[in-house]
Specification:
With 139 residues, the protein is an all-alpha fold. It contains six helices and no strands. 58% of the residues lie in helices and 0% in strands.
C-alpha cells in the first residue's frame, strides 16, 4: 500500500502524519514539507476535471459545481462532524455511494457519478437540485 493511500484512509491529521512517517521510515523514504493546500488543490482540480467530463452541459455542470462547492469545497474526504455526511456531495450515510463503486471513499469519479445520479433522480437535474438548494440551504 502506498504512503498516499495510507494517509487517505486515516481521518485524523495527527494519525495520518504519524502513519505516513512510520510507513516512509519503514520503506527508507524521507518526508519533505509541502504546503498544506497542495494535495487538496490538486485533488479539487482533478475532481472538477472529472465532473466536466461527466457533465458536458455548461448549465448542469455549473449547478453541480455550486452544490459541491457549498457542500464539501470539492474535498473528496469531507466529513460533516455533526451528521456524518461524506464526500464531494455529502451523501448521508456516505456508504450509499457504494452503489456507484466500491472505491466510494476515495474516488472523485465514483462520488460524482453517484451525486449526479442522485440529483437527476430526486430533482430531475443538477439545475433542479441547485434551485432546491438555493431555496432550502440543502438538497
Amino acid at each position: 500500500m502506498s504512503v498516499t493511500r495510507i494517509a487517505r484512509r486515516i481521518a485524523s491529521p495527527k494519525k495520518a502524519l504519524t502513519a505516513v512517517a512510520l510507513a516512509a521510515a519503514s520503506t527508507g523514504m524521507a518526508l519533505t514539507a509541502a504546503p498544506a493546500h497542495a494535495a487538496t488543490t490538486a485533488s479539487s482540480a482533478e475532481a472538477k476535471a472529472i465532473a466536466h467530463k461527466l457533465i458536458p452541459d455548461t448549465a448542469q455542470y455549473n449547478a453541480f459545481s455550486k452544490i459541491v462547492e457549498h457542500e464539501s469545497g470539492w474535498d473528496v474526504d469531507a466529513t460533516n462532524s455533526s451528521s456524518g455526511a461524506y464526500g464531494l456531495v455529502q451523501a448521508l450515510p456516505g456508504s450509499k455511494m457504494a452503489s456507484a463503486g466500491s472505491d466510494w471513499k476515495t474516488s472523485a469519479e465514483t462520488q460524482i457519478e453517484w451525486g449526479l445520479d442522485y440529483m437527476n433522480s430526486r430533482y430531475g437535474s443538477p439545475t433542479g437540485a441547485w434551485a432546491f438548494w438555493q431555496a432550502n440551504g440543502w438538497y
